[in-house]
Amino acid sequence: MSDHCRTLEDVRTLLQSCKDLDPQERMKFYDSWAQTYEKDSEMIHYRAPNLVVDYLDANYPGSPGGVQVLDVACGSGLVAKLMSKLGFRHFVGVDGSKGMLELAAKTGLYQDLRLALLGTQPLPADSGVFGLVVIIGALRAGFVPVSVLRELCQAAKPGGYICMSRVEPKSESAANYRLSMERELQLMEEEGLWTQISTGDMDRYMMNVYNTYEETTEQYLRGTVYLYKRSVN
Ligand SMILES: C[S@@+](CC[C@H](N)C(=O)[O-])C[C@H]1O[C@@H](n2cnc3c(N)ncnc32)[C@H](O)[C@@H]1O
User: Which sign, positive or negative, has the C-alpha torsion 207, 210, 216, 221?
Assistant: First the structure.
């Protein structure tokens, strides 16, 4: 289908078709979606990158200029494009989809782009290097597993920040993911690995395209953003 005649209904159908994919199949899905990802994201009012970058603007305590940013599940580079407007300049991106990384490369904003299927392959980043690690739009069931949170924390330098966001879809698997993520966040804090700086609710994170019209009562999904600071010791 040529992209100029795509409708919201087409994008809804497309996204519903990928609900139950395994991780490898999901990366193939993103490879094939890459070319229309940004247009389609606008159509479904995917506002997560804007909301999280606004959140960082209000809550990130340092000055952005010299900070090394690790953009995990960077996709097409939307997040780096928005962060660069705040003055962040140094980005390394990681994603499991080659097609998405090719688009991210075209932004010209990344010093390096690394292919890895997280949860199956280790996060390709040295420990203790990044002043800020961000992950937007990928902490959910069937995407990046909760076990990767420890790797995100490790990639940050001591005293560095980790900013994570999560959508709140209406499903049992999403509720289970949320519970297990919040348990892990808490456990890592108890282990002295990091400290929560702040957390926020985000309204109208994206349209609720994952449920069929019959199941849907709310048109938009909410999201949550978390900001953590890696411990110095
Ligand atoms: C909704 S997009 C978000 C992209 C970007 N962060 C944004 O907000 O526009 C989700 C991205 O996560 C990537 N992704 C999902 N699961 C992954 C995994 N297990 N390992 C690596 N990348 C993954 C996909 O390839 C896709 O680029």
Answer: negative
Contact 149, 181 (CB under 8 A): yes
Q: Which numbered atom of ligand 1 lies nearest the CA of 78? A: 9
Q: 233 alpha carbon to ligand 1 midpoint, in Å?
A: 31
Q: Which domains does the chain have, with CATH numbers?
A: 3-230 (3.40.50.150)
Give the C-alpha distances (Å, rounded to integers) separating 120 from 24, 133, 138, 144, 232: 10, 19, 15, 9, 28
pLDDT tens-digit profile, the chain (233 residues): 555 678 999 999 888 888 888 889 999 999 999 999 999 999 999 999 999 999 999 999 989 999 999 999 999 999 999 999 999 999 999 999 999 999 999 999 999 999 999 999 999 999 999 999 999 999 999 899 999 999 999 999 999 999 999 998 778 888 899 999 999 999 999 999 999 999 999 999 999 887 665 566 678 999 999 999 999 97
Count helices and strands in the chain by DSSP H and E runs? 7, 7
pLDDT at 174: 87
Mutation test residue for ligand 1: of 19, 30, 51, the one with most atoms within 8 Å of CB: 30
Q: Give the phi and the psi of residue 204 in degrees, each rounded to 5.
A: 50, 55
Q: What is the CA(97)–ligand 1 centre distance, in A?
A: 8
Residue whose CA is at the smallest distance from ligand 1 atom 15:
143
80 Cα–ligand 1 center, Å? 14
Average pLDDT across the chain, whole number: 93
| Ligand 1 atom nearest to 71, measured from its CA | 6
